[in-house]
Amino acid sequence: GVYRATFAVPDGLQLSDVPVVIRLIAVEEVAFDFELTPRLAIDTVTSPISSIEHDATAPLVEGKTLTVTLTGSPDASVTYEIIDAETGAVLIPTSRFQTSPPLPISVNGEGERSQQYTATYTVRDSDFVANGRVRGALTKPNGRTVSATATRRVQIDALPPEPVAGVQTVDRPGDEGRTLQVTWSPASAPDIAEYEIYLQRQAFSKGKIVGAAPALRVSPSPSGRAAGGEVALPVESNGVDYFVAVIAVDGAGNRSVIGESSSAGPVRAIDNLPPDAVGLLTAFDTPDDAGGKVTL
Fold first, then answer.
1. If we measure between CA atoms, which residue out of 246, 247, 249, 250 comes closest to residue 191?
2. Residue 65: which residues within 8 A CB-CB, separation 6 or more?
3. Distance (Å, rounded) from C-alpha 125 to C-alpha 128?
4. 264, 256, 104: which is closest to 169 by C-alpha?
5. Beta 145-149 vs 90-92: how paired, if at all?
6. Beta strand pairing call for 65-72 and 90-92
7. pLDDT single digits (tens) 195-226
8. What angle do CA 199, 200, 206 make, to 5 degrees?
9. What pLDDT is stored for residue 287 in this prediction?
10. 164-200 per-residue burial string, b: 16 or more CB within 10 A, e: under 16
11. What percent of the chain has a predicted confidence (pLDDT) above 90?
12. pLDDT tens digits for 59-77?
């Protein structure tokens, strides 16, 4: 005949190399034992994550790397994400983390086995997390998953300020040249740390400024502009075309790009002061001549 039997595996049971033996008892009470192969492994234990931590101690900006270390059950698969600390919404998904091979399995004095898992995440342009936490999820070979969240919060700011607008440049009047007057509209972001003024002989292209050093750095006043609402920018020569661009830098070091009205030019510095008046001028008749000449 055909015989069937079932066994409901209880939660929290962990066994390895389990033999399954079938015993047939004949009418004469003669027993026959048969052991099935292969032997079974039973694991319905959801092992807790021992620890999860990361190495970020300051706000992260573009190009910086966050390293996460999780210790938990061995031979598992682990995923990571960054969530909003208040709402739990996912801000940086699992796909942004690069996992490394786990360290060898370790055994403590009580015979408990664990393994350390590591992953990294690199900040990209426009990533932003005001108040986040790193969450790790560990899935054992039996399919059981447990998650844990790092205690230390993480901040990410790779979101640049809006482009500076309203940049205007004119010759500074009433001088001998070699100076331009630069003005711009206040930036809307509350965390602007400084403005950078760039000067060159060609027109600026829209986008990021790469490889150039600013001609001047200016701290914002409470109104969002440099003190007095304008900046005097020295130039090398009079009568030649210059172009000027202004970008904003926030507290995390993110720089705005050059937008529609972030640059101005061409403009020339002009010497618009007349020479000093000639003084102590004396005129008299030239002696011993036939007239017609005056000596100065």
1. 250
2. 120, 121, 122, 123
3. 9
4. 264
5. unpaired
6. unpaired
7. 999 999 999 999 988 888 999 998 876 554 44
8. 85
9. 72
10. bbebebebbeeeebebbbbbbebbebeebeebbbbbe
11. 49
12. 999 999 999 999 998 889 9
Query: Does the structure show a pLDDT above 90 at 4?
Result: no
Distant-in-sequence, close-in-space partners of 296: CB < 8 Å, separation ≥ 6: 281, 282, 283
Q: Which residues contact 15 (CB under 8 A, 6 or more apart)?
A: 40, 41, 42, 43
Q: What is the pLDDT of residue 225?
A: 44
For residues 198 and 209, give the distance between their C-alpha atoms in angstroms, rounded to a whole number: 9
Q: What is the DSSP letter of 143?
A: S
Structure confidence at residue 267 (pLDDT)? 93
Mean pLDDT of 4-25: 78
Residue 232 to residue 169: CA distance in whole angstroms = 10
Q: What is the CA radius of gyration of the chain?
A: 38
The residues, any chain, with a CB within 8 Å of residue 261's CB and separated by 6 or more, are 163, 165, 166, 167
Q: How far apart (Å, rounded) are the C-alpha atoms in residues 81 and 60?
A: 16
For residue 87, is pLDDT > 60? yes
Cis amide leading into 102 (omega within 30): no
Structure tokens at 168: 């205007």
Q: Please give the Cα distance from 138 to 135 (Å, whole number).
A: 10
DSSP state letter for 223? T
225-275 pLDDT, tens digit per residue, is 443 357 899 999 999 999 999 999 988 888 999 999 999 999 999 887 666
Distances (CA, A) of 23 to 28, 31, 38, 119: 14, 6, 17, 50
At position 15, the amino acid (one-letter code) is L
Question: Which is nearest to 65 in space by CA: 127, 139, 8?
Answer: 127
